Design the sequence.
């Protein structure tokens, strides 16, 4: 939406200043809510995607999730909030699924705490182990 204010798609009207400022306000409220969360917790542990790893396919291909086709680009949409709020995130390998494809975990930290987040990630890899490339990739 923010880029749409300055570079709208050809078929769309530019975003209004009021709508843009409303989006900035929403982002600021989200930042504040997450900062309150990180006053109590060191990290947030969450999935990096709504699906485990999937075989390579064309980026626009639909992916099958819980019996439905899902837009390829939406499988990780729940994590994009951290791109807008500026909270650092790291994805680590965890295990492999029954097909031998990797399952990851995402850890998110407090804004401006990249060094702490990377130290936590390093400590977690001692438990999760290093990434192991699936056979054939």
Sequence:
């Amino acid at each position: 939406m923010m880029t749409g204010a300055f570079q709208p798609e050809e078929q769309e009207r530019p975003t209004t200043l009021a709508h843009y400022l409303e989006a900035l306000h929403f982002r600021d409220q989200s930042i504040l809510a997450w900062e309150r969360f990180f006053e109590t917790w060191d990290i947030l542990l969450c999935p990096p995607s709504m699906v485990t790893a999937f075989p390579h396919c064309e980026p626009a291909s639909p992916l099958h999730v819980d019996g439905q086709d899902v837009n390829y680009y939406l499988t990780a949409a729940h994590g994009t909030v951290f791109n807008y709020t500026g909270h650092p995130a790291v994805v680590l390998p965890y295990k492999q699924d029954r097909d031998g494809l990797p399952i990851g975990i995402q850890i998110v930290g407090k804004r401006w705490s990249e060094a702490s987040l990377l130290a936590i990630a390093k400590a977690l890899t001692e438990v999760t182990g290093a990434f192991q490339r699936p056979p054939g990739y």
Notes: The two ends are 36 Å apart (CA to CA). The mean pLDDT is 86.
